[in-house]
Design brief:
binds adenosine-5'-triphosphate; 3 domains; Rossmann fold; single chain; 21 helices; Helicase, Ruva Protein, domain 3; 5-stranded parallel beta sheet; about 475 residues; globular; alpha/beta
């Protein structure tokens, strides 16, 4: 659960004093406070203390003495269903990781621990509901670039987007791909590059939603040493790295105005000038940009430059949401299940027709990504190698209750009670911000992601809603 407090606390569960010190020092670099438990029993006992109540995450080493790691995870889950928990596994500990995930771990990180990856995983799990650490790279393998012929979808609105994309791929002009989160914009962007005459050139990607706005400019254009506080070394920009190839500018709507002006200049001149530099370098790059927000509204509000919009949209198309192409859900689910089955530790998985029918009747506000995540979680949790409707029980209940699966355990979705749990298992009330976050998630699900309606029903303005989403770390794509 995300916290708006300045310092977040993680419990490190590890028996090795040196490793405890290493992990404590590491997390403190990311602004985390830590408490330590030397074995799993102590860790479980600490959960009930005042200190334990204030925890934001738990980090447990696979080799910690006490109960088996999966047992520890399920015990912790029964007490604190929503507390993010990351398991540190041995280098090739995929099996342990899968067992821990089956028991309810949020994520896992393999040794040797890469500091940035661990900190990134911790930050993201408290700021969103999806798996992000090693699991993200694991599911990321599903993202192996797809050629146009492998992109699944036969509904007319999807086929027409495919036709525009395939035609645009052959030209050099900038392409803009629009669509709600998780609709497959990045998949299309990669396919466009792969099918273009410059496919042998580099493909460089910048996700502007993942970089702080102040750093997008230096990421794109590079900077000279000392160009601004913190620019310790000279850095080549992504545009230069993509010379001769393509650059995917993901979530172009997040680029601040100042950088937009520089981008317009580049599009007009074909020349890149590093921040703090004087030399201009000619760069031949094809820009493929994506946007999940209505850019016309941003232009109207003065947040996006109209000239940049036109420069980036020589070719453009919008990917339909999954609910607008329900007929594709079955084939997509089969395809994704095949790919999930190919992941380490998984093995071949089947799916029944009933389950596919159930999946096709669902609204999928998070689109293909949500479908993929739900399938992945079901495959990990399933005791058999064929997924049935029962493996998607939460969705079943959601359908009958008119809501969507919750991303965290505190929204009861088992069909008995669709609502928000106010109490901790020990009978104490949950913190207000956790309850508030769950109510907002519930509302987003109930109103199928229609944010104006969510804001109206909750009696708050849209901007307040978006601020709360960001403060509470709610990922609307989940
Ligand atoms: N047609 C498809 N066939 C197979 N897999 C797909 C398809 N579309 C999307 N996916 C999978 O769904 C996930 C989300 O796709 P992608 O990242 O391209 O979405 P996006 O629209 O760029 O999302 P966001 O706006 O949140 O960045 C990816 O893991 C991708 O592999």
């Amino acid at each position: 659960m995300a916290s708006t407090r300045d310092t977040r606390t993680v419990m490190i569960v590890d028996s090795e004093p040196a490793q405890q010190r290493f992990l404590s020092a590491l997390v403190s670099r990311g602004g985390w406070r830590s408490i330590v438990a030397g074995d799993t029993d102590t860790a479980l006992a600490k959960l009930g203390t005042q200190e334990g109540m204030g925890l934001d995450a738990v980090l447990v080493d696979q080799g910690t003495p006490g109960v088996e790691i999966a047992e520890f995870v399920s015990q912790l889950r029964s007490w604190r269903p929503a507390l993010p928990l990351v398991v540190i596994t041995m280098r090739n500990g995929v099996e342990v990781a899968v067992a821990a995930m089956r028991a309810g771990a949020t994520d896992f990180v393999q040794k040797p621990i890469a500091p940035d990856r661990l900190l990134g995983a911790l930050d993201r799990i408290v700021n969103s509901s999806g798996p992000q650490g090693e699991l993200r790279p694991l599911t990321e393998k599903l993202r192996a670039p797809l050629g146009f012929e492998e992109i699944i979808g036969s509904s007319p609105n999807f086929r027409s987007a495919l036709a525009i994309a395939a035609k645009a791929a052959r030209a050099r002009v900038p392409v803009m791909i629009k669509g709600k989160p998780g609709t497959g914009k990045e998949v299309f962007a990669r396919a466009i590059h792969a099918a273009s005459p410059r496919s042998r050139g580099a493909l460089v990607m910048v996700d502007c939603s993942a970089v702080s706005p102040g750093l997008i400019g230096s990421g794109l254009f590079g900077h000279e040493r000392g160009a601004f506080p913190g620019a310790f070394d000279r850095q080549i920009g992504r545009l230069v790295q993509a010379d001769g190839g393509s650059i995917i500018i993901d979530h172009v709507e997040c680029i601040p105005l100042e950088t937009q002006a520089k981008l317009v200049e580049f599009l007009n001149s074909g020349e890149v000038q590093m921040i703090g530099g004087t030399i201009r370098q000619t760069v031949d790059v094809r820009i493929i940009s994506t946007s999940a927000s209505p850019l016309d509204k941003l232009i109207e509000a003065g947040h996006f430059r109209e000239d940049l919009y036109y420069a980036l949209t020589a070719a453009q198309f919008t990917l339909p949401s999954l609910s607008e192409r329900r007929g594709d859900v079955g084939p997509l689910a089969r395809h994704l299940i095949d790919r999930i089955g190919g992941l380490p530790g998984m093995g071949s998985i089947g799916v029944t027709d009933d389950a596919l029918r159930l999946l096709a009747s669902y609204a999928w506000p998070g689109n293909v990504r949500q479908l993929q995540d739900v399938l992945f979680r079901a495959a990990v949790a399933s005791k058999t190698d064929v997924l049935t409707s029962a493996d998607f029980g939460a969705i079943d209940a959601a359908l009958s209750g008119g809501t969507v699966p919750a991303s965290e355990g505190n929204i009861a979705i088992n069909g008995e009670a669709i609502g928000v749990t106010l109490y901790l298992p020990d009978g104490n009330l949950r913190p207000l911000e956790e309850i508030e976050a769950d109510v907002i998630r519930l509302a987003i699900g109930h109103y199928r992601g229609r944010m104006s309606e969510v804001a109206r029903r909750l009696g708050i303005g849209r901007s307040t809603l978006y601020r709360k989403l960001s403060d509470l770390g709610i990922d609307t794509a989940a």
